[in-house]
Design brief:
heterodimer; A: about 325 residues; five-stranded mixed β-sheet; B: alpha/beta; five-stranded parallel β-sheet; 7 strands; about 40% helix
Chain lengths: ~325, ~280
């Protein structure tokens, strides 16, 4: 059943707060949108809304975590990672406090609200902080598995969620280790690394490519940091043409990660599907993904170009 | 309970160590550290229940040095408490040291929060106070801010939240020395009046406290301890550089180390003060 990952986040968090009295949940006036309100209903005494004051929420989370609590902070990806980057770096990650930042409405798929609300830098700016862990689950089951995993990790992390409903990739309750890269479809010659809702687009692109006799491998990179470099390196070695797909700026996101690993393990020409260092605009979820080539057609065309040695193709370089 | 004379003696030793730390490191922030030395001495010796035995625990009162650049004062006080060894103070700001330029809660025993980037410590302190309320342990949390620091917007976000959540286990102390790096606070951007701003957010405000006078600090902290339902802020006026004549009320000594000659003069003045105590 199609479900937005933020819905899965709220459901799983509500379950966890009921089980674990050391979990505290915070929001910054977006509890209904991020779905943290579900956890608030389950354990109102451990739910705190800090209003439209995200930096203060992060600081208070640091204080709770320094007192032995595990804190989940939720707001939109833009405000969580952009406005509070320095609070996250200095008050949470440097002292390695047990706070999970949930950035819902990540990427351009937030749609009509436009550029001010479309976080396409969140994964990159979180990834660049030393020791920060970064997760971008692709569907409801993977989101629940991530929430379960990080609740017991004892260290800070960032989790991106989506506003829109996405098709299921994994059966609920049956997600392998979320810290590993998962090969969803094993093919030959062409490998597509995808993260977040681009995993579904990559799987659809593969179906189109199969009709042409191209059988790409599709790998889900949910954990962007610490990256599963062993699996990434092996996939790179086993394939000639590499495509990365992210609903994120191509700077410092999945494409940069794969290129980084490739430079040290198996150098390859890498074509990057993603926002080509530009802002998007208002529009429907579907229209935006199509216009900026973050859809199955965009991936298929990128594969065609890359197979002919052109890693820029429709996206430009 | 320490007498005022004993507290003055401790604060004098703290000031001597502040000069030694900053001089040895040839970097650091002597002015604000010297000014805050009495507040820190009073907190650690007359208010909080911290000891070498419970320093690693959160089951006690805690302190957040939101103006983290006054770390030389905090380290010197922790040495006076026996939580750090005095010799270690001479590793301040050196490679491989536990005594970082700004406090690190993971490296230094007795440091309750990593700080240094201004405006963030009060929020963490409020989170601790709210966590103490949730845990029902009744422990207090104290946060020391600079007056220049109150120019940071996050301070006022926390002022709003701490009042909203009836955070009466939180006491903030604003160290008002009237100076910041670029000059007088009133000339740079004008954070004043600070007390009325906290009052407007619903805090209990204790105004006009002499932050370099133990009797005044005692009265202020006793009043703070009696406040229920709202957070308290103590507006403590201090002399930046207090105790070293050529550093007093000089913005230029915010973040500069004294040279050998200046160090000798500063230590001589403080040794002379010691004889009077």
């Amino acid at each position: 059943m199609a479900k937005a990952t933020r819905e899965a986040y709220g459901e799983e968090l509500a379950r966890l707060v009921t089980e674990n009295p050391k979990i505290v949940v915070m929001d910054a006036d977006l509890a209904g949108s991020t779905r943290s309100a579900e956890a608030g209903k389950a354990a109102p005494e451990r739910f705190f809304d800090f209003g439209i004051a995200e930096a203060d929420m992060i600081g208070n989370a640091a204080g709770f975590a320094a007192s032995g609590y595990t804190v989940f902070c939720s707001t939109f990806a833009m405000f969580a990672t952009g406005r509070c980057w320095e609070q996250i770096r200095n008050s949470l990650v440097y002292p390695q406090l047990d706070v999970k930042i949930f950035g819902s409405h990540g990427g351009i798929a937030v749609g009509e609200d436009g550029v001010s609300h479309q976080a396409i830098e969140d994964l990159g700016i979180m990834r660049t902080i030393p020791k920060m862990q970064v997760y971008n689950p692709c569907d409801a089951a993977e989101m629940k598995a991530v929430v379960d995993y990080v609740a017991g990790s004892g260290v800070p992390c960032y989790i991106r969620g989506t506003r829109s409903r996405v098709e299921d990739v994994y059966p609920e309750g049956n997600v392998p280790d979320v810290t590993k890269v998962h090969v969803l479809k094993k093919g030959a010659n062409v490998a597509i690394f995808a993260t977040g809702l681009m995993v579904q687009a990559a799987l659809q692109a593969r179906n189109q490519l199969l009709e042409e006799g191209i059988n790409p491998t599709v790998a889900d990179v949910c954990c962007l940091k610490p990256a599963d470099e062993e699996t990434i390196g092996q996939i790179l070695k086993d394939h000639r043409v590499i495509i990365t797909c992210e609903e994120h700026n191509v700077v410092n996101g999945l494409g940069s990660l794969i290129a980084d690993v490739a430079s040290r393990t198996a150098p390859r020409l890498i074509a990057r599907v993603g926002m080509q260092d530009r802002f998007a605009e208002s529009g429907s979820f579907e229209a935006l993904l199509k216009k900026y080539h973050l859809d199955p057609d965009g991936i298929v065309e990128t594969v065609h170009n890359a197979m002919q040695g052109d890693a820029c193709g429709i996206h430009g370089c | 309970m320490k007498t005022d004379q004993e507290l003055k003696q401790i604060a004098n030793r703290v000031r001597i160590n502040i000069i030694r730390e900053v001089s040895h490191a040839q970097s650091g922030h002597p002015g604000g550290s010297l000014g805050a030395a009495d507040i820190l001495t009073y907190l650690y010796f007359s208010v909080m229940d911290i000891t070498p035995e419970n320093a690693g625990s959160t089951d006690r009162d805690r302190f957040v040095l939101s103006k983290g650049h006054a770390s030389p004062a905090l380290y010197a006080v922790l040495a006076e408490k026996g939580i750090l060894k005095e010799e270690e103070l001479m590793t301040f700001r050196m490679i491989d040291s536990r005594l970082q330029g700004h406090p690190n809660m993971r490296l230094t025993p007795g440091v309750d929060m990593s700080t240094g980037s201004l405006g963030q410590g009060l929020a963490a302190a409020n989170g601790m106070a709210m966590a103490n309320r949730l845990a029902g342990n009744g422990h207090h949390v104290y946060a020391l801010l600079g007056d220049g620091e109150c120019e940071e917007g996050e301070v006022w976000e926390t002022a709003m939240a701490a009042h909203h959540y009836h955070s009466d286990l939180l006491t903030a102390i604003v160290d008002v020395n009237g100076l910041q790096i670029d000059g007088r606070t009133d000339d740079v951007i004008g954070p004043n009046p600070i007390g009325p701003k906290f009052a407007a957010f619903g805090w209990h405000v204790i105004e006009d406290v002499d932050g370099n006078d133990f009797d005044a600090l005692r009265k202020a902290f006793e009043e703070a301890a009696s406040v229920r339902d709202v957070p308290t802020v103590i507006i403590a006026h201090t002399i930046k550089g207090r105790g070293v004549s050529f550093m007093e009320n000089q913005a230029g000594w915010h973040g500069k180390a004294p040279n050998a000659e200046q160090t000798a003069q500063a230590l001589a003045e403080l040794e002379k003060e010691k004889e009077t105590l």
